[in-house]
């Protein structure tokens, strides 16, 4: 009888030992799997957020300061960026100064033409430019104009001026939305820089 009890007790000890071994051997694997799963989920979530950041459209501020520079940083220097060119996004109502390799050097707010009156395609800055103009038939003018098509017809220029040469605030506040007769309107500061610094024959690409 004692021997039989000993055998039964030994069997229980063996079963208990086997159970403990299985428990402690398999437990780290489960924890590792959970940790790996959490890591993968975290990476996937971060990738999704990153993707949304890359594809999120630019949002214009509620009110654009039509007299100031569009960015806080200094304007680019064309002599330090050979091959720099200009891109106009009609969809975003933004003008990008681009490096030759496509990097954006500077971004400006703009207003293109109402009813798709701004021509699209590839153009080059022409020889015609000037400090100001006034069109009596439109009762509207602008400062710091630079021609990019048809030699004085399609221009980059400041927000509009009135007959007395003062800026038309009602029109200027439309910056960031199509508003012109086909030209590209810029803030006063941006237009002045464009007039003084963007050289003849600089490539201009206009599209969506």
From TrEMBL:
GO molecular function, one term: transferase activity
Pathway it works in: Cell wall biogenesis; peptidoglycan biosynthesis
Domain L,D-TPase catalytic, residue spans: 84-207
Keywords: Carboxypeptidase, Cell shape, Cell wall biogenesis/degradation, Hydrolase, Peptidoglycan synthesis, Protease, Transferase
TM annotation in the entry: none
GO annotation, biological process: cell wall organization; peptidoglycan-protein cross-linking; regulation of cell shape
Phosphoprotein listed as a keyword: no
Pfam families linked: YkuD
SUPFAM superfamilies for the chain: L,D-transpeptidase catalytic domain-like
Stored PROSITE patterns: LD_TPASE
Biased amino acid composition, Low complexity: 33-50
Region (Disordered): 33-54
PANTHER family in the record: L,D-TRANSPEPTIDASE, L,D-TRANSPEPTIDASE YCIB-RELATED
Name by which UniProt lists this protein: D-alanyl-D-alanine carboxypeptidase
Organism: Oenococcus kitaharae DSM 17330
